[in-house]
Specification:
Blueprint (H helix, E strand, L loop, with lengths): L10 H38 L3 E8 L2 E9 L5 E4 L9 E6 L4 E10 L4 E6 L20 E6 L7 E18 L2 E11 L11 E3 L5 E10 L2 E6 L2 H13 L5 E2 L2 E7 L2 H7 L3 E8 L4 H5 L6 E5 L2 E2 L3 H5 L11 E7 L2 E7 L2 E2 L2
Antiparallel strand pairs: 1-2, 1-4, 2-3, 3-6, 4-5, 5-6, 7-8, 7-10, 8-9, 9-12, 10-11, 11-12, 13-20, 14-15, 15-16, 16-17, 16-18, 18-19
Length: 335
């Protein structure tokens, strides 16, 4: 009944059969998962590759290259401002071999977004989505032209959300907020390309490589849609200006509980003669809300400083010496 060693006869053979069955089942599940993953990536690639162009520009500082994604049927493409910096025109090459000239419609270095328009439209438009709906761990696909390799596709996941990326325009610095971090491989030339979700909807514009295995993308959301609309309509983005600088500051616990808001923005500088100064905002004040929206960071205030805010009343609620104070500011246009 028992073989040598006290084990039932045939136990090794039985274990071998079980292991084989388990390996077969495990391999089958893995294959199905890989097949599903492959179908998603290939589906996104099939839909997006015709919409993405390789851009080449030449400026006084030399030649440059990047990517762009078509977002209208009449030839408007979205890319990064740094890809076309200093250029007025260039060449666009699509995956089907089509090449055409393009003009720079407008660029906004403070969001690192730019719009160009090709002379001979024909590429399909990629759908623009909403990056605010993304979740960490979600599958994303990057399409671009890294290292001069046209039509390159990489896949990964959303590694982080809400990242910040400094952007500069001359001496002005602005923080691009809600930046998407992904582990999809991005290399030089990917800038301006599409970052899409599993449905092939563009949720970001690849903008930077911070190191091996780390890529960043400007999100497509309500703020960037407004910027894109301004660039198409006027070639520039009008921004409002209050004239304050601040840092996040914790609120007293009773007030935080009542407002359901943990932090505000402590004012550390007020520019003399600025809209903020004229409205009666002082050093040490803590900005709680602006336009009825909670202000817990510099970025929260920045989101409100777009064209529609210029010359319009902007009510602000402050915490000053443990008392709530309401003021009304009128943001001016940022030169």
């Amino acid at each position: 009944m028992f073989a040598d060693g006290g084990r039932p006869a045939g136990i090794d053979e039985a274990r071998g059969v079980v292991d084989t069955l388990m390996d077969t089942e495990h391999t089958g599940v893995e294959s199905e998962a890989l097949d599903a993953y492959s179908r998603i990536v290939t589906g996104v690639a099939t839909s997006l590759l015709p919409t993405v162009a390789a851009l080449s520009v030449r400026t006084a500082r030399g030649s440059g290259a990047g990517s762009a994604v078509t977002f209208t049927d009449d030839g408007y493409l979205l890319t990064n401002a740094h890809v076309v910096a200093g250029a007025r025109d260039g060449r666009a090459a699509f995956a089907d071999g089509t090449e055409t000239a393009f003009d720079v419609v407008g660029a906004d270095p403070l969001s690192d977004l730019a719009v160009v328009r090709v002379h001979h439209p024909g590429a399909p438009a990629a759908p623009l989505g909403d990056a605010d709906a993304l979740r960490i761990g979600q599958l994303v696909v990057a399409v671009g032209n890294p290292m001069g390799l046209a039509g390159s596709v990489t896949a990964g996941v959303v590694s982080g959300l809400g990242r910040s990326l400094p952007a500069r325009d001359g001496r002005r610095i602005r923080i691009i907020d809600d930046v998407i971090q992904t582990d999809a491989a991005l290399n030089p030339g990917n800038s301006g390309g599409a970052l899409a979700d599993s449905t092939g909807t563009v949720v970001g514009i690849n903008t930077a490589v911070a190191g091996y295995g780390l890529g960043l993308a400007v999100p497509v959301n309500s703020t960037t849609r407004s910027i894109i609309g301004d660039l198409v309509a006027t070639g520039r983005v009008r921004r409002a200006w209050l004239g304050v600088a601040g840092v996040p500051a914790p609120l007293p616990p009773p007030l935080a509980e009542r407002l359901r808001q943990k932090t505000g923005l402590r004012v550390i500088e007020v520019v003399p003669g600025s809209p903020a100064g004229s409205a009666g905002i002082y050093l040490g004040d803590i900005i709680l809300t602006a336009g009825g929206r909670a202000v817990q960071s510099v970025q929260a205030l920045q989101r409100l400083m777009l064209g529609p805010a210029i010359g319009a009343d902007l009510p602000i609620t402050l915490l000053r010496r443990n008392a709530l104070v309401d003021v009304v500011t009128v943001p001016a246009e940022l030169d």
